[in-house]
Prior knowledge:
One of its GO terms (molecular function) is metal ion binding. It is found in: Plastid, Chloroplast. Keywords: 2Fe-2S, Chloroplast, Iron, Iron-sulfur, Membrane, Metal-binding, Plastid, Transit peptide, Transmembrane, Transmembrane helix. The chain crosses the membrane at residues 482-501, 508-530. This protein is α+β, with helices and mostly antiparallel strands. It folds into three domains: 92-198, Rieske Iron-sulfur Protein; 211-429, Naphthalene 1,2-dioxygenase Alpha Subunit, Chain A, domain 1, CATH 3.90.380.10; 470-532. 23% of the residues lie in helices and 21% in strands. It has helices at 14-19, 74-77, 234-241, 247-250, 352-380, 396-408, 462-465, 471-500, 504-532; strands spanning 41-42, 48-49, 92-97, 107-111, 114-120, 126-130, 144-146, 149-151, 158-159, 165-167, 185-191, 194-198, 222-230, 266-274, 277-284, 292-297, 301-309, 315-326, 332-340, 415-416, 421-422. β11 (185-191) and β12 (194-198) form a beta hairpin. α8 runs antiparallel to α9. The chain starts with 13 loop residues before the first helix and ends in a 10-residue tail after the last helix.
Amino acid sequence: MALSLSPCLPHTTYLSKALSTSKLTTISVSFNNPLLGFKPVKLRNNQVRCHAVTDLKSASSLDQSKGEGDDRGEEESKGDRIVADYNWTEEWYPLYLTKDVPDDAPLGLTVFDQQLVLYKDGNGVLHCYQDRCPHRLAKLSEGQLIDGRLECLYHGWQFEGNGKCVKIPQIPADAKIPRSVCVKTYDVKESQGVVWVWMSQTTPPNPEKLPWFENFARPGFQDTSTIHELPYDHSILLENLMDPAHIPISHDRTDWTAKREDAQALLFEVTERTDRGFAGWWGKEKDGSMPNFLRFDAPCVLQNNRELVDKDGEKHYFTGLFLCRPTGQGKSMLIVRFGGTKRSPLAKLFPKWYFHQNASKVFEQDMGFLSSQNEVLMKEKVPTKELYINLKSSDTWVAEYRKWMDKVGHGMPYYFGHSTLSPPKLPAVVEHAPAGLIAGVSASSPAKGGIGTMHAPNLANRYFRHVIHCKGCSSVVKAFTAWKKGLSAAALVLTALAILASSRQWKAFLVLSATLCLGGAYACSTAVAMNTTNFIRVHRRL
């Protein structure tokens, strides 16, 4: 039986959920073959970054016999904290899905507190600038594209690919524009359908740090990718994504793969800890096996992988990939990619927008918990070990992540670690008309300035969290809205004709036609609501 990795649950345990219902004759986890096939990358201080599993069977498993409150290593147990060399700017951050970058409008984005603008020039080449016009600091993401150049809509200054200003309408015709009139540029790369940005202005881009995912390059690999903007810190988001224990409870019956009666103790085995992250195996205690391989890589790339062999002896690869980008205090953006080398025929029966709205629903189910968690961390300003009660049978990855932040957090703008922390120095700036928030809408449709065509800006709102960032869902909403209006108008006309008709047969035909049109309009309205309306949890007595 073919097994598909559905995007309905953007969490790492979907793989095990799906496999529990499959009829595959053999399930094989290969320890000697890479699940993602990355080559080790040599970094400074003789550190080696391993992007994937290679000979994990031969790698010695790390001791987890100590309680979660105990620090690892002899030095740490004596109170000496291990600190790694780390600079958050010397990393590649995922900006956007390539397919969703607007062709005719600039896109305002942020990495931590750094505001960027991304756009395509006349040749389709991507460029990234600091989101600030050097004239009077207006946001370039509020601008427009003129002949492949980015124009500031405040006074019409235009900039081309290398950041040079090529037009200032207010200077004399014979005057030259000084070379100093330019914008700060950032290096961007497109890789495997994702646009990445290198944030350092002093260190040249390191191509070896640019993530590459072997499974996504395998023949026959298909994935469903979605992008979501979320109203809580990236560290809380990553905790949530690496927490398989919450899925049976929080997402009970979301798509009939998560069931609260399946909540149980889990097994974990950490096989790698480096300055770049950690990795290991996990599974259900009742199954007595750990077929899932989880890897976290700096700065914020998380993946969960599984291999299995079907009854014909053919090996299949499945991946849940989560590419996170910090977007400021209490905000983050996430690219979710679920895929595999084999897909269920049933998945072809559903349109992509259905999976996208279901993924949005999953995030909405967690949003209340995670937003309140974010508020507590910001208010209490103490390390997580003083707030969390971590269980070895469910929270191993969460503890590993916060301990990793203890090592590298000093190189971040702010962080909350297991034993240490450095909260934000300044309060978050709240913009009442966020630039670029509507940039996914075509520049020919005047929706700039922070007021959208459907809802007021609010990251708790599905329309602004996902739809405006997704070309597919935006097109679907527009199409269903147009059909709804057309069918409603047709129903009105048919009803009027039915009133005027003298023949019974014509009256019946026209009334039936009007009813069908109204039914179609209702269906279109339902589809629009599915894409734009938040999930509301209904509490029940069990």
